[in-house]
Structures are given as C-alpha cells and as structure tokens.
C-alpha cells in the first residue's frame, strides 16, 4: 500500500553533511499494523515526515496504492487518504476544537463520539481554542480524534504515548487498536511502548538512519528486551533496550 524505495536523506551538519536516512526500502501492506521503534535520533520521525510529504528525500521514491507520490505535498497525501498524528501537534490560535473536528468530519456527525473515544468530555473541550492553553496530552488526544474522524486509508501515529498519562494511555491504545480492527486501515505507530509494540504484525527497528531489524512482535520483542538486537548492544554499551531508550 505504501512503498518506500531506496529513501535517503541528509542534512547540513556544520561544514559537512549528516546522513539521516540511508537507503531505506519498506513495503507497508494494506490492513497491517506496523510499529517503528529504535533509539532517540535514529530517524523514525524523519521517515514519517518523508512518508507524509513534509520532508522531501534526497533520493528514492514513495508509492501509495501503486501511484508514485514522491513529488506530492502533505495536503495532497492527506486528500489521498494518508493521515499523520504529529509527535508534537501544531496549535492554531483563534480556532476552536469543534472547528477542526468539523473540518475533519465534514460536518457535525461523530464529533462528540470521537472526543469521548479519546477520553475528553465534549462539553469541556468543543469551545476551547486549539492554542497553547491546551496541555500536551490534551492536544495529542484532540489530534487523534481528528484523524479518526477522517478515517484515512493509512494512519501514521508518531509516539501517541508522549505526554499522555498512564490511565489515558491504556484507553488510547484501545482506540488505536479498535480503529485498526474496524477500518482495516494500514496503521504505522512510531513508539517505544511495549504495550503498543506487542500489537504489531511487524516491528521495524530503525537506528542510525537504517533498518536494523524487522519481524513479528514474537521475534523482535525478546531481542529488544535482551539488547541483542543488531547494533543495540553496541549503542547501549551492553545495557538492555529498555534502559537504552529510557
Ligand atoms: N532538519 C534537520 N537538520 C539537521 N538534523 C536533523 C534534521 N531533522 C532531523 N535531524 C537529525 O536527524 C536525526 C534523526 O531525527 P529523528 O527526529 O528522525 O529521530 P527519531 O528516531 O524520531 O528520534 P526520537 O525517538 O527522539 O523521536 C537526529 O539526529 C536529528 O537531530
């Protein structure tokens, strides 16, 4: 459904250039649940931004449902049915929560339900502005409600757990899982959380701009836990993965 072919990207680093993504090729299949994990700074968010059309790769091609979308931007990709929940969602001063939900839903249908599904009381939030007054966890949940209303064919969540309290986290994981089961959308979650990783049909480990390992949760989880996953032992100095990313 989404195919990445030989994606490379570098950025200026003083007088030289730093390779952020190194020749990444991944074929994300329709209806599957993927998790992308790996150490901080490994290239996960950059890869998500390349898929969404926020960042253009130096080389390589991106395909969606067989169509080459490399030269399209985020608006076109969203229109085609690719949704992205930012690691740090943007804020819009002067725009109310209900306004962005209405745009997503193309009307009022399902708005209240979507807010409730992410654990927010509609009465408390619909008239609030999507500005700095919302906490990190609140804006993250509102963004997820927006994306679920759009019902994209493919959804990328960038660390949905970030800033969300433990109790709400459990509910949020259920929302992501249920949406995946009900809509059979392609789901890609960038995460460090074992609870989400364990839901994956496939886990892709990205470190140092490269795919270091991939496989089922059954295959990869024990490797992540014992720190023997490819370069992790080297990166962690022998500590286990959980310690490495803490
Ligand atoms: N525009 C840029 N210019 C220079 N360096 C960049 C740029 N964007 C990303 N980087 C660097 O590329 C590397 C990968 O960043 P990225 O945000 O993709 O990592 P990540 O795996 O998502 O990390 P985290 O788990 O902390 O979210 C980092 O070293 C980051 O500093």
Automatic annotation (TrEMBL):
It comes from Koleobacter methoxysyntrophicus. This is Vegetative protein 296. It comes from the Bacteria. One of its GO terms (cellular component) is plasma membrane. InterPro entries: AAA+_ATPase, ABC_AA/LPS_Transport, ABC_transporter-like_ATP-bd, ABC_transporter-like_CS, P-loop_NTPase. The keyword Transport applies. SUPFAM superfamilies: P-loop containing nucleoside triphosphate hydrolases. Pfam families: ABC_tran. The lineage of its organism: Bacteria, Bacillati, Bacillota, Clostridia, Koleobacterales. The keyword Cytoplasm does not apply. Keywords: ATP-binding, Nucleotide-binding, Transport. GO terms for molecular function: ATP binding; ATP hydrolysis activity. Residues 2-233 form the ABC transporter domain.
């Amino acid at each position: 459904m989404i195919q990445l072919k030989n994606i490379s990207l570098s950025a200026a680093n003083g007088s030289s250039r730093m390779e952020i993504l190194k020749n990444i090729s991944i074929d994300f299949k329709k209806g599957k649940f993927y998790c992308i994990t790996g150490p901080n700074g490994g290239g996960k968010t950059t890869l998500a931004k390349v898929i969404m059309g926020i960042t253009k790769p130096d080389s390589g091609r991106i395909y969606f449902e067989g169509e080459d979308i490399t030269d399209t931007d985020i608006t076109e990709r969203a229109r085609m049915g690719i949704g992205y929940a930012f690691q740090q969602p943007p804020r819009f001063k002067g725009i109310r929560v209900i306004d962005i939900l209405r745009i997503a839903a193309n009307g009022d249908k399902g708005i209240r339900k979507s807010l409730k599904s992410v654990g927010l009381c509609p009465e408390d939030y619909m008239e609030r502005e999507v500005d700095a007054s919302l906490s990190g966890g609140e804006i993250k949940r509102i963004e997820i409600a927006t994306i679920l209303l759009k019902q994209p064919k493919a959804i990328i969540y960038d660390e949905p757990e970030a800033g969300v309290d433990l109790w709400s986290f459990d509910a949020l994981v259920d929302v992501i899982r249920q949406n995946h089961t009900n809509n059979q959308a392609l789901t890609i979650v960038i995460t460090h959380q074992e609870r989400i990783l364990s839901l994956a049909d496939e886990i892709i480990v990205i470190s140092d701009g490269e795919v270091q390992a991939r496989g089922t949760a059954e295959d990869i989880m024990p490797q992540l836990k014992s720190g023997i996953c490819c370069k992790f032992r080297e990166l962690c100095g022998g500590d286990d993965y959980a310690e490495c990313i803490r």
